[in-house]
Amino acid sequence: MATRDDIIQAIGNGNSTATAIADAINKDRSHIARELKAMSDEGTLTRTKQGRSYHYDFVDDRSEDGLSVNKGYAWSEWMPEDVPEYIPSKREYEEIQAEVDHRETADNPAHIRLTGPTGCGKTHLARALAQELEAPFFDISVKWATDTTDLIGRFVLVDGETQWINGPLTKAILASRERPTVLLLDEINRARPETKSALYEALDDRAQITIDALGGEVVQGEAVNLVVISTMNVGQGHHVEELDLAEQRRLGNRWSIDFLGLNHPDRESQLIADRTPVSAMFAARLVEAANNVRRLANDPSEQLSRGIPTGLLLELAASAYKYAQAGLENAALRATRTAVVDPYYQRGDREITGRDTVISTFRSFFEGMPSEAVVENAELQAWADEDIVDTDADPEEAVG
Ligand SMILES: Nc1ncnc2c1ncn2[C@@H]1O[C@H](COP(=O)(O)OP(=O)(O)OP(=O)(O)O)[C@@H](O)[C@H]1O
Ligand SMILES: [Mg+2]
Fold first, then answer.
1. Lowest pLDDT segment from 29-38, 46-55, 297-306, 389-398
2. How large is the angle between the packed helices 18-25 and 29-42, nearest 10 degrees?
3. Which ligand 1 atom is the nearest neighbour of the CA of 87?
4. pTM of the model
5. Which of 36, 220, 352, 372 has the most crowded CB, counting CB atoms within 10 A?
């Protein structure tokens, strides 16, 4: 597959003979010649003899008004790379992998629905899966304002000429004709009805889209190749459309994901220590503080609207490190404010309930901690020991 993408790219860069294409991508000429012949036999490329050699080009399947869906893409450009490992919070990843790996033999496309609070790793899971499958990855984040042109494509003026530019949904459908493809529909429950109907035509067994702007041109995909991951945030307070049963069925089985640290504090602190320069002990303490907040947020009787996402803990850790490096005092508490409390439990037009709870929880974990303890296990240990000694020595003062 990789060769074909390379070939398409080389042709797109203006090479047309087997020799030129083979040189451009550094591959054996006879192998490329065979591949080119096969592609023109299948109708993917045109082949014309000029002088002594054959010249290859994209099939020009433009409609009469000169506008049609461009189909020549090098899909490898859309394949995610260097995605860090996804760390499962429960058993979701192995089940989702099984859904994907056995979709062909089961003749049952892999449609996966993920719910969970913001920042629990839903997008990350989808990208990690695409990387594993070596699949091009298309990410559509759905908003109430998203309309069909955002999904399917639109006309744009290029050098005075009107051209049709495919949208991400069209690209995903096209890619699925050739290979497994991952389509992430972020916050699908925000879509308004017109947008939904375009989406659901693509998501059912037909795996196709109809482009009204191009005179009803139909682009047919390969349903079994289209791995669809849709996400929904819960407890966000923004406009959400209810999904009816038919829609839910198309979106597939559902997994609800929780913050990694609630089930596996050790894995989340490891993740923080791996991805940021903070010490393992500091990372563990961060997770413990965050888990206190998360447990309160899960309790409906509490005035706290949301827990702290893994992504924000990573931000907090990175900022605490920077403040410590700069010699600022109270690095951890400062970072709690700048990375978590102010952006996520913000003041201003809409106060997010629970701000004070977050502040007091993190104070109880980090008040008075020397900034060096952000990077040095020993410093953190010494400070923690000192704390305990003090309390033991003077119980009166500890209470006060
Ligand atoms: N289980 C996990 N394994 C590895 N990384 C994780 C995990 N959970 C969260 N992260 C990291 O946390 C950050 C936020 O994750 P991500 O963007 O995937 O969240 P999300 O659930 O898609 O959030 P949103 O609902 O806001 O889109 C990313 O940097 C991601 O790598
Ligand atoms: Mg996301």
1. 389-398
2. 120
3. 3
4. 0.77
5. 36
